[in-house]
Amino acid sequence: MNAAISLGQGQDGRDVLLNLPELLATRLLVQGNSGSGKSHLLRRLLEQTATTVQQVVIDPEGDFIALAERYGHLIVDAADQSDTTLRAAGERARIHRASVILTLESLDAERQLRAVAAFLTGMFEVARSHWYPVLVIVDEAQLFAPAAGGDTTDEARRLSLNAMTNLMCRGRKRGLAGVIATQRLAKLAKNVAAEASNFLMGRTFLDIDMVRAADLLGMEKRLAEGFRDLARGQFMALGPALSRRPLKVIIGAVETRSMAAGPELLPFEAMRGEDLRDIILEPVASFTAPPPREPRPPPPDLLKQLEAYTAERQKPSNDASGQAAALLEEASPEDIWKMVKAVHLESEAATRPLPALFQDFQLRARISQIDVTLIGLEGFRLILGGIRAGVDYAYAQGAIWAEAVQIAASLPEDVQGVGLLLAFAAQQAAPCPNDAAIAASYGTFSLGRARRQLTYLQEQHVIVVQESNRGRRVAFIGTEWQTDWAPA
Fold first, then answer.
1. Facing residues of 74 across strands?
2. Alpha-carbon gap, residue 444 to 307, rounded angstroms
3. What's the burial of 25, exposed, middle or buried (CB within 10 Å: 0-12/13-18/19+)?
4. What single string gives the DSSP state of each residue in 121-178?
5. Per-domain residue ranges of the chain
6. Cα–Cα distance between 285 and 148 in angstroms, integer?
7. Cα(212)–Cα(199) distance, rounded to whole angstroms?
8. Reported CATH class of domain 4-260
9. What is the Cα Rg of the chain in Å?
10. Are 200 and 28 contacting, i.e. CB atoms less than 8 angstroms apart?
11. What are the pLDDT tens digits along the chain (488 aa)?
């Protein structure tokens, strides 16, 4: 997919475009002093991508809540949830592909660090089958990845810094695209900031921050003072998703309003101090305790919220419900098989992650007006594994292949393709697949890892591996399936 969004305009009046697929692969760092327009920039980015990619916003000040009303984000108040629940919620948000705003405004600094660490860890540790692309925006990132200690405990800082490091350093392969914003680069941990390849640098006044910003943009130090002259909403852009040379951009307008706007200047009607003396210094007869707080309602079940969110987005309209049902009746297993095979035949399909291939399949299904719920990721994985093994549609309808699929479905997700590859070869009494073929079905180039999959399947009492001077042969336990001898 080649998608570009407009961040704003350059000095020549032309739109400055941000390449979204490139951003998802290379990450973004935004820097600017308070009042430079960072939150406005992030809001513009979120609005422009809300209908294109899943979003997760770490919102320490409750600044982005208004996005939920317009774009349907799920608001999670971290104050209502335990760390365990937040960790599970991060995982479930990825599984259900829900856009989430994690608001932290009612928490103290210690609890904010722990809440962010728990939620990001849940997102990071989700199973490989749910590694869909997601844009993770972290405002005031210096709070969660500090360069030095503060008033919080060492444990809380360590947990939060580890989670932020995983997001920026190891998140790309898991589909996590970090967008971090900070007021001061000097306060942000260097190993977190260094992983970003795209930069948007706004107004800043301290020498150390100006020099570091200029260094990141590849500008001469004598030009660093130019960051003082940037107006609110103006940023210097650089990176593969933005521009190959430093480029000034004026951020465009936004449609939603900040929920954390600063105070407005109102007319001040001054009164004489003596006129207020009796009011301010009125004696207090006795201390009156504040009324007790009402008990907080029990926290909502986040899983049910996420499931309801997903169901609402997938629910067909009343006018189209009858047509959708009819399309479901017209869709045949052979049509699905052909679409999966078309995905398999695409260039680079062998090296792309399964979730990306499944997204391509869903797109083909929508174009063909077939309900994508007709087959889930599990079914797609088994069909694709059979196609990769060399099975055609007619053979897949037989009972013998159905038994192979049943055996593969009982295995862990990452070895199901290996099981199907070996099963088809054994059913045909064909030569045993070599290490390279097994590695390809596992999604790796390591021959050693391929051999370990054979050892694993043998330990699980699925196959028996025979080695001799004739080569290798594999037999499936409980069946008559057996490959011919072949070199490993």
1. 100
2. 34
3. middle
4. HHHHTS-GGG---EEEEETTGGGTSBSS--SS-HHHHHHHHHHHHIIIII-GGGTEEE
5. 4-260, 328-476
6. 48
7. 12
8. alpha beta
9. 28
10. yes
11. 457 889 999 888 889 999 998 998 889 999 888 888 888 999 999 999 998 999 999 999 888 988 888 888 999 999 888 888 999 999 999 999 999 999 998 889 999 999 999 999 999 988 888 899 999 999 999 999 998 777 788 888 999 999 999 999 888 889 999 999 998 888 888 888 888 889 898 888 777 777 777 777 777 766 777 788 888 889 988 889 998 888 889 999 998 887 655 556 667 676 777 777 777 887 776 655 666 656 555 555 555 666 666 566 556 545 444 444 444 445 688 888 988 998 898 877 887 778 778 878 877 777 776 765 667 788 888 999 999 999 999 999 999 999 999 999 999 888 999 999 999 999 999 999 999 899 888 877 778 888 888 988 998 899 999 998 889 999 999 999 999 999 87
Q: How far apart are CA 198 and CA 235, in angstroms?
A: 12
What is d(CA 248, CA 30) in angstroms, rounded to the nearest whole number?
14
Which residues in 330-354 are b (16+ Cβ under 10 Å) and which e?
ebeeeebbebbbebeeeeeeeeebb
What does the alpha-carbon distance between residue 20 and residue 144 come to, in Å, rounded to a whole number?
25
Nearest 5°: phi and psi at 138? -120, 110
Long-range interactions of 80-87: CB distance < 8 A, separation 24+: 80/296, 80/299, 80/300, 81/115, 81/299, 81/302, 82/299, 83/114, 83/115, 83/117, 83/118, 84/118, 85/299, 85/302, 86/115, 86/118, 86/119, 86/122, 87/118, 87/119, 87/121, 87/122
In the numeric block, which tokens belong to residue 98?
């829900």
The pairing of strands 100-103 and 74-77 is parallel
Helix (H, G, I), strand (E, B) or coil at 463: strand
Separation of alpha carbons 6 and 18, rounded Å = 6
Terminal CA-CA length for the chain: 39
Please say whether the beta carbons of 468 and 486 come within 8 A.
no
3-state helix, strand, coil in the chain (%, to 5): 50, 15, 35
